[in-house]
Amino acid sequence: MSTFRRTRRTIANVSFTVFCYLTTLVALTALALIFWTLFSKGAGGLNANIFLKVTPAAGSVGGLANAIVGSIVLCFLGMVFAIAVGVMAGTWLAEYGRNSLYAQLVRFVNDILLSAPSVLVGLVIAGWLVAPFHGFSAFAGGVALGLIAVPIITRTTEDVLNLQPTALRESGVALGTPKWTAIRLIMWKAAGSGILTGGLLAFARISGETAPLLFTSLGNTNFSLGFNKPWFGLNQPLASLPSAIFSFAATPADDLVRLAWTAALLLAVAVLAANIGARFLTRERRPS
Amino acid sequence: MTTLSTDVVVRRPPKGAALDPFFKILCFTAATTLLAALTGIVVTLAVGGWPAFHKFGLNFFTNTNWNPVTEEFGAAGPIVGTLVTAIMALIFALPLAFGVAVFLVEFCPPILRRPIGIAVELLAGIPSIVYGMWGLFVFAPFFAQYIELPLMAAAPPGSIWETLTTGVPNGDNILTASIILAIMILPYMAAVLRELFLTVPVQLRESGYGMGSTTLEVITSITLPYVRRSAVGAVMLGLGRALGETMAVTFIIGNSHDLPKSLFGAGSTIASTIANEFNEATGEMHTASLIALGLVLFMITFAVLALARALLGADKHS
Lengths: 288, 318
Prior knowledge:
The complex is a heterodimer of chains A (288) and B (318). With 288 residues, chain A is mainly α. Chain A has helices at 2-42, 48-52, 65-97, 101-115, 118-130, 138-163, 166-174, 179-190, 192-207, 211-214, 241-249, 254-285. In chain A, helix 1 packs across helix 12 and helix 6 (138-163) packs antiparallel against helix 9 (192-207). Chain B is built from 12 helices and 2 strands. Chain B has a domain at 80-268 and 300-312: MetI-like fold, CATH 1.10.3720.10. In chain B, strand 1 and strand 2 form a beta hairpin. Chain B has 318 residues and is mainly α. In chain B, strands 1-2 form a two-stranded antiparallel ribbon. At the A-B interface, helix 1, helix 3, helix 4, helix 5 and helix 6 of A face helix 1, helix 3, helix 4, helix 5 and helix 7 of B.
């Protein structure tokens, strides 16, 4: 009887172990396959033209210069907006609101925004900033990306501020500084690398977002930015890597599809670099 | 003789003290901006979608006919498509994510633990359009040739098997979309589950092993009970992601607005419909219907996410 039970337990455990090994193998294989495809199809198209020429029509030689610049500008716009709002909101939650009812509500709302479908953000920003101004604009795209990044930064800012010891907060009070000076010069400084990590994570998230850009900045086959243009060209539709991928992947033209793979590779590398940078910062902060 | 000064020492307020309330108000405003943003999203979607809800009423949810030409919009197809693809993706991804998480916590050789853990977390951040492209150019053709065609050819006429596998064998269908979604949410769910498993105190797990339990028994009777509510929350988070995912699905689902009838049939989700049609929407009713769809998607994800958040914090161990 007891040997029977023992055998049964062993068999169950061995099958479970095999299952865990297999699932990990399957998962890693699938993900490795995706990466292998990305590199094998994308790396071949990497050359100087990619960074120097604008997106071409089918059949002509071109690059992704306008899309790369556009993506950087859009992310920059989004991050400026998101850092301004996110750091302040996170500070309010950690230093002022704490456990008040309103703070709990804001925290819940932030959590919902954090995982709200990004296509809806695009839809709503289109209603606010595209329809009333009669046209797609880089500005609308930046705000849409910003709205996606804000909850990430709010969350990390609050988390790292909460990690700081209470004694640090009291040290500011002991010196007789006003609270806002203490927050700026002590709390933000202590939490600096954590807040930066949040910023990098948010950047990684928004740089690959496609859906919200479809209805806001749309895409552009030319350089639409310039210092001599009204609003620096930010009131025009703006090219970006994700929107270039979306439009090229749908074409039957082989050279455009190749360009789309290269764009996807660039995007993936940028996102990975930002994520690795964020990890590196976190590790420095808390060696464990 | 010295006289004691009777002057009260006037302590000057510290530099910048006057700005203190403004800073507080500024921070409060930023926090309120978040609330305003969410309210704004709901109101905008509700107002924008109102004409569609008003005109079609409940038919909007039950009618399967989505026809921009006749301006008749029934959203049953995309709504059912969204739920079906997300739930199928969850069914595929959950066992895999669970296996990976257990592997990383219990079986993984220590040298590999960090690299695989980091790889899983990094993969969770890859943009969905990359998964979508891979699905469109690599997975769909492979699937059509090596899985779809043989299965369709082998289906006995009149059986459920045949019903489930009818469709155009081009790889663009509900099943492939679900599989791509599953691959997408897999690293995310695995990373969250692993974090959860790591919160189980080592003493608890070791007490299990000390009693002579096998790994399986430790997982099922110690780890899982310890994190059970949070684990359900993690699964719901994955579901929320799958529901709202746009680009990976848009490329590969085939974009038909009919009710999904078979695994190999083309379908659509709410997100893919919006992504495909919003910029080309012809009439006001078309736009309104798309925004109404957006509100439906928001409500579904809101419910799932709210539940997920409530569950994730529910395992309070002191």
